Amino acid sequence: MNLAIVSASEAGLVFLGGLAMFFVGGIPFGLLVGFLNGVDVRKAGSGNIGATNVGRTCGRFWGILTLALDAAKGFLPVLFLAPLAGRHFVPGVPHCEVVMQVAFGIGAIAGHMFPVYLGFKGGKGIATAAGVFLAASPWALLCAFSAWVLFTVLTRYVSVGSIASVIALASGQVITDPEAFRNRLGVTLFSLGVMVFAIYKHRGNVKRIIQGTEPKIRLGKKDAEAAKP
Fold first, then answer.
1. 7-14 LR contacts (CB < 8 Å, sep 24+)
2. pLDDT tens-digit readout, 7-53
3. Do 188 and 177 contact (CB within 8 A), yes or no?
């Protein structure tokens, strides 16, 4: 009976940890950076609060800053706080550090995608997910980043690169982590969940690509000159 009570209590603490990160992940850095530049990014460009749209509407520097801030929402808590919380608050949970990392990661990404501060209308979660996996599974993230660079350069669509990156993330987690289906199964399932949700959030981009209205990025002088009237 006592064991059941302890298990329920620890499960509740894991849930509370993820819930706390939901509110942290919901901090709309892209919107705040846009306001600093006098732009409501929800009403400009694609209307998204993520780094790509901030860069498109406010400038490259501000897009990179938003990317870093959104990634930090996932990276710092998962790397530093989650293991401590696991060891100190839920030591009876098997693989407590991994469990808490997954809970924190889910909370941060879900918070970014569905921010309570903006009526649950947020970004696509790519940057925050990158921060989470930089802390939890850096080799899988390297696979994801490589795929993002390759497909973004080949297609000049950031959205295509992003979709390719989450597919590579899940594949990379399975391939590079020897504990992917044992002690770190939670991280593997998490990576698959990120892939599914990120692809779902990009459905509008896919539709615009098919319609030919999705904006392409400029990779060099040739592209810039071609875009001039």
1. 7/92, 10/89, 10/90, 10/92, 10/93, 11/93, 13/85, 13/89, 13/90, 14/90, 14/93, 14/99, 14/100, 14/103
2. 678 888 999 999 999 999 999 999 999 999 999 999 998 888 989 89
3. yes
Helical H segments across the chain, by residue range? 2-25, 29-36, 51-58, 60-76, 82-89, 96-113, 126-136, 138-155, 158-176, 185-201, 203-211, 221-227
The three-class DSSP label of residue 202 is coil
For residue 105, what are the contacts with CB-CB under 8 A and spacing of at least 6? 21, 74, 78, 82, 129, 132, 133, 136, 190
Query: How far is it, in rounded angstroms, from Cα 40 to Cα 32?
Result: 9
Please choose, from the candidates 25, 207, 205, 202, the residue with its C-alpha nearest in 3D space to the C-alpha of residue 113. 25
How many Å apart are CA 92 and CA 77, to the nearest integer? 21
- pTM of the shown model: 0.82
- Three-state secondary-structure class, residue 76: helix
For the record, the structure tokens of 121 come out as 């209308």
Q: How far apart (Å, rounded) are the C-alpha atoms in residues 129 and 82? A: 15
Could you tell me the two tokens for 228? 């001039």
With contact defined as beta carbons under 8 Å apart, do 58 and 143 qualify? no
Q: Is-contact 192 172, C-beta < 8 A?
A: no
Tokens 């998490």, residue located: 190
Residue 186 tokens, joined: 């939670």
